[in-house]
Amino acid sequence: MNKQPDKKTDKKQNTKARLYRNRTIKIVSLILALAVTVLFLQEFILCNPNHNSERVRGYYLEDENSLDVIVVGSSEVYCCYSAGLAYQECGFTSYPYATEGNTVRNFKTIFDEIRRTQTPKLIVFEINGAIYGDKNIDKEVNLRRVSDNMPLNDNKVELVEKGATSDQIEYYVPFIKYHGAWDTLYNTIGWSISLIQDKLRGYNLLKGIKNRTQIFVPDSKVYSTSELQKRRPLFRKSDEELNDFLQYLVDEGYDSEKILFIRVPHITTDVNITRYQRGNSIADTIRRYGFNFVSFESDDPEIGIDVNKDFYNIEHMNVYGLQKFSKFFAHYLQDNYNIGPSELTEEQKEEWDKTGPYYEAYVKYNEQLFSEGKDIEVAENYPCMREINKLVQ
Amino acid sequence: MSYTSIKFLIFVTVTMLVYFLFPKRFKEYKWTVLLAASYVFYLCAGVQYVGFILFTTTSTFLGALWMDKMSKTSKDYLREHKAELSREDKKKYKERTKRNKKLVVALILVLNFGILAFLKYAKVLFLGGTGDLLVVLGISFYTFQSMGYIIDIYRDTVPAQRNFFKFALFVSFFPQIVQGPIGIYSSLAEQLYKPHDFDYDRFRQGFLLILWGLFKKMAIADHAYIAIASVTEHYQAYGGTTLLFTVILYALQLYMDFSGGIDISRGVAQIFGIDMMENFRRPYFSKDISEYWRRWHISLGNWFKSYLFYPLAMSNAFLSVSKRIKKSKFGSSAAGAHIAKVLPTSFASFIVFFMVGIWHGANWKYVAFGVYNGGIIMLAVLLKPVFESVLRKLHINPDCGPYTVFRIIRTFILVLVGYVFDVAPTFEESMLTFRLIFTDQNLRVGYGEISELGVNKVGLLFLVVSAVFIFFVSLIQERNSDTTIRAMIDKKPAIIRWGVVYIGIMAVLIFGVYGSGFNAADFVYAQF
């Protein structure tokens, strides 16, 4: 007699259970769809994509323990040093862990990141990051160019805690900071495509180089290094950060066999003479801690720099300067630090064998733009790579 | 705690969990969760401001009880002495009770409106400064709401609330305290005190409304505000074209900001089972200024209508003026008869809008705003026969489509004129704005200036597309006023329903102004 009511109750309960199940599935699906979309946008599109992100993420795409030399620094580095040319000339793998306005405050974190992911024979630090004023040290953007493109780990947390100027959550969820960049997507979509291509490929092709197709001709006196012996004190924060970093290197047991400090070529006029003089003070400090410092400023005849042809502005080399300095520096490392051809797996060799032809295509493309009179920044973004790919042999 | 902040999202979620998980055996006390949440919300604005809301709550509560006691005592006395008292005695007794009640309600009104007036005007009148002495969260809204209640008690239209804490909830209910809508006790109170169970469909509808409000506020209003703020911070630096653009943009920004905030409030309240009244009904589709004010900030309009307009229009003073005009020689003419008939209502409207202007703040531009709106309404009513006669002579059907469109555009322009007073920092600068708009139009210069207002071309395009989108959504709402867009979406297949939610959330996340890259505008009406 009780079977009918039980059947009805059961049906009701089944319907309810089905309803709850469907709702749960829909809600979970919605949350997943939102999460995937936000993560994709945060990773590739609304993440302030530019040459800095392409370069730093390119570093992390490299296989662990596959890089023999890493050059750390700011914009001078990726304008003057081509890892592709170095590999072509001397057979060793290298990478520029360099960002625009990279300050000495970031050096420790970058150093720890390098130790975490690679076992290089040599780490080279370009000292420009210690010449900056205190305002640059505190500038959020100079920190974010590194932190935004690092994976989340203790080093990132330490860097953010040291230098964050806004809500720290924005450093861990950069979408909060950059979501508003949809109104400049037309400028950055080329970089987004490049980031996606690098990720799918597993490595980048130009290894972070970037130049401008312009020739800067100085219109005032260019100082020779012999005229620039004066020292000028560093800004307070730069000085503190530099000393802390050098002491850290010493405490970690590093010496001049594994660490090298350099100054890459610049044009020195009255406009930037004080920077050179600060560089002299930095050199003294570095040597006091027992490390080597080498200046490759432009009047070194061995490099063969032409100040009227090889720069696109007073601080940065164009492709002509890049060719000369990269070749020189690669051989310098080979000769002075015994950096021989790298031991690579077949896959790694396949990757690195591409860097030479791509480097040459990059140079050709730059020269083509020069001949057309176009002033353009050339780097591994989609519009440039579309042209460079046509020139690869 | 801003309605568009993560803190508010967490706050509402926690309140929801506590409310809907409240033990069933104590369900008649569920409202205490809303009270506690409302005071937590209020305390987050600043502990020092709680004294103001507590004063209003206590004075209104006690005043209402006092009047209620007078009414009850009077009724009991008259009932007990029905046989002994003459009609005259009964009338005198009732009048005395009414007089006493009037004193009480006047005292409560003076005290509470006095505080509001003092905070708004003390700095200007006594300290020679500008702006409010103190910006107390929601003081305008909870003062209007509780004074509406006390007037209803005086009128014997609602019974006095005997539970102080229940009354405190009515005054402080957190979704509406920042910027309304102003609730009427008879429709809001019972909903607040009744225990509501979680309802999935109601939650979904409330969530959609919140999402819509967030999109309007964060994506559209706050983007527009970036450009507007650039102009208002350096007002003297811009030409007529830019100023005209700013006023038009302000029309979009103000509507999106205010209506977006109200949607969030109503959506949150709906989740808790409380239906708050609509506060906007597509005001830019209005055919005249009177209609505009019936569609804009509806709850404030209703408040002024119930508690100021009708008492003034129906007062002996106004009616006697009307009678005198009617009896005069002028009154025997058609024009005179018309004026005699409409003068009380039109003059009452003028006074109402003058008060609305004063309520906005201690600045001559707000007074000008009120006088302007009141003046237009007054003139429209007084000159109605003249306009009708013109239409007849021109053989224009007032209900035809083109004329309706003309009226809508005309009303929008009149509204824009009023907005000039709002946007300009001072009355003098509003006059300068009018002059420049008419005498300093230069598209090339304007284009250059507008490009430098902090919103790039893509951002401006977004605002234009958003405005068009809002227009079409409003058009659908206007043509289907018996239902809501949410109800229409509910009838669609699941993939569309969930697609709308997905797109809505992504639109807010991507286009919303938040994070350190922006300075989001606080809700505009919260300053009042």
Task: Describe this structure as you would to a colleague.
- Chain A is of the alpha/beta class and 393 residues long.
- Chain A has a domain at 66-138 and 205-391: Rossmann fold, CATH 3.40.50.
- Chain A has 17 helices and seven strands.
- In chain A, strands 2-1-3-5-6 form a five-stranded parallel sheet, sandwiched between helices. Chain A has a two-stranded antiparallel sheet with strand order 4-7.
- In chain A, helix 13 (273-288) links the parallel strand 5 and strand 6.
- In chain A, helix 2 (51-61) runs parallel beside helix 11 (185-201).
- The longest helix of chain A has 43 residues, at 3-45.
- Chain A is globular and about 100 Å long.
- The model of chain A has no long low-confidence stretch (mean pLDDT 94).
- Chain B contains 22 helices and no strands.
- The two termini of chain B are 17 Å apart.
- In chain B, 37% of the residues are buried.
- In chain B, helix 2 (31-45) packs across helix 6 (164-172), helix 10 (240-271) packs across helix 19 and helix 13 runs antiparallel to helix 14 (334-360).
- Chain B has three domains: 6-197, no CATH class; 199-280 and 493-517, no CATH class; 285-441, no CATH class.
- With 528 residues, chain B is mainly α.
- The mean pLDDT of chain B is 89.
- The A-B interface holds A 23, 26, 29-30, 33-34, 37-38, 41, 46, 166-167, 170, 175-180, 182-186 and B 200, 455-456, 458-459, 462, 494, 498, 501-502, 505-506, 509-518.
